[in-house]
Design goal:
This protein has one helix and eight strands. With 177 residues, the chain is mainly beta. A hairpin with a 3-residue loop joins strand 1 and strand 2. The protein is elongated and about 55 Å long.
Length: 177
């Protein structure tokens, strides 16, 4: 767990220290790139750690697109023995800004998810998601932001942990490269 926490801290430090300089004053592709992601930490009887780095690009003044990976570790001590899960996957997304702060979000994700069956044996399933929703982006500086999203899984795969029209809330950050 200490290695995981150190890796998370390193990821955040690298993300906030990456900057691009262009002495000629011209805008090139790397000036349109940004990195960031989501980080979730819950500790206690129910422990959940999510690390989800991403990279994206501003395609024009209103459109953004990108891709990312995700790893999630869960340990539920409410059971004896405790139940643990390791889940991982990838995603591609696009965002359209109505105004600089408000955006629509469309994302396809695919996860390899573990779950326990009735005999308490682990099963691994491939689960696709199609998230649709929107959010709010707040600029922290000229090249960094925090975003708040509300998404819905509209595919509703039988192995999806989300119920129909159950909102999924997330907070993320981004830093220009």
């Amino acid at each position: 767990m200490k290695k995981l926490l150190l890796s998370i801290a390193l990821l955040i430090a690298i993300g906030f220290n990456i900057t691009a300089q262009n002495d000629s004053g011209k805008s090139d592709f790397k000036d349109k790139l940004y990195t960031g992601g989501n980080l979730g930490l819950t500790f206690g009887t129910y422990t959940n750690v999510i690390v989800s780095p991403m990279v994206g690009a501003r395609l024009n003044e209103r459109m953004y697109a990108g891709l990312g990976i995700e790893y999630q570790y869960t340990k539920d001590k409410r059971y004896e023995p405790a139940l643990t899960y390791n889940q991982f996957g990838a995603r591609v997304f696009t965002q359209y800004n109505f105004i600089p702060q408000l955006f629509a979000h469309l994302e396809f994700a695919a996860m390899s998810m573990e779950k326990y069956n009735l005999q308490l044996n682990k099963e691994r399933n491939f689960v696709p998601f199609l998230y649709v929703g929107g959010g709010y982006r707040h600029m922290i500086s000229k090249k960094s932001f925090v975003s708040f999203r509300i998404l819905f899984d509209v595919l509703q795969n039988p192995n999806s942990p989300y119920k129909s029209w159950e909102p999924i809330y997330s907070i993320g950050f981004g830093v220009g490269i």
